[in-house]
Specification:
With 252 residues, this protein is of the alpha/beta class. Helix content is 48%, strand content 13%. It has one domain: 3-Layer(aba) Sandwich (Rossmann fold). Helix 5 runs antiparallel to helix 6. The relative contact order is 0.19.
Length: 252
């Protein structure tokens, strides 16, 4: 069973951390494939579009190229996406309703499902402003981790070292950071997805109000799973729980 995975704002496929292996253990038949957004990871040398539709168009093109070349199988396909990646995924599923059989949406949001301070907590604005102004990896990555993860500082130490190293290896530009923020801020919820859909969210999310995921689930009339303490980056905070929920959803 094939799964395509998208990460969130200025993150790349490496930021799934332990989740891919945890999911393979829960679902041994799963084959996981990744595409980084323009401006991040393998695509860090390219500029990012400033619309969700623009990011989606880039991914669709590369997805089809990889299928045509044999690097990706022809399908069927399922889609797992978190945060900003979820917005891109919702846009894709709405534009091409038959491409994916199942869709798992994690801690995402939309402009018409919450006001600006529900989608981006005021408490983190000073820190994120500092991250943008002082764009050294040691500063920006530490602040991003602090606001997106609810693990203890001791548990985060190795994660932070990895994030700083990855940022130095594949530098995300300030332009990409701003373009993705702008794209996410303008995104509106599309029609309910045709694929069978699961919405997963974290009650401990300090970046995006968890109520937004509940509103999306209501609009989509779909199933939800709720984590009691994890932060916005649920796949980092509790990858084994998330893997279990998705594997259960897929097998049901």
């Amino acid at each position: 069973m094939n799964f395509l995975l998208f990460r969130g704002l200025v993150r790349d496929q490496r930021h799934w951390f332990e989740f891919p292996e945890a999911f393979r253990k829960k679902h041994p038949d799963a084959k996981l494939y990744f595409l980084d957004f323009p401006g991040t990871g393998t695509e860090s040398a390219r500029p990012s579009p400033n619309t969700i539709a623009g990011i989606r168009a880039d991914l669709v093109r590369r997805f089809r190229e990889k299928i045509a070349s044999g690097e990706f199988p022809r399908g069927p396909w399922n889609l797992i996406a978190i945060s900003l990646g979820g917005m891109v995924a919702m846009d894709w599923v709405a534009d091409e309703p038959d491409t994916f059989e199942r869709f798992i949406l994690i801690n995402s949001s939309a402009r018409d499902c919450g006001h600006v301070f529900e989608r981006f907590s005021p408490a983190i604005i000073p820190g994120m402003t500092r991250a943008l102004l002082d764009f050294r990896p040691e500063v920006s990555e530490s602040l991003i981790l602090r606001y997106t993860s609810n693990r203890t500082r001791a548990e985060q130490a190795e994660t932070e070292r990895l994030m700083i190293r990855w940022q130095k290896e594949n530098r995300v530009s300030r332009q990409t950071f701003l373009a993705q923020i702008y794209a996410g801020a303008r995104f509106r919820l599309p029609a309910a997805p045709k694929p069978r859909t699961l919405i997963v969210h974290s009650l401990g999310d300090r970046l995006v109000n968890p109520e937004i995921s509940r509103r999306i689930a209501t609009r989509f009339r779909t199933e939800t799973r709720v984590h009691p303490w994890a932060g916005h980056d649920l796949s980092l905070d509790d990858p084994h729980w998330l893997a279990e929920q998705i594997a259960d959803f897929v097998k049901t």
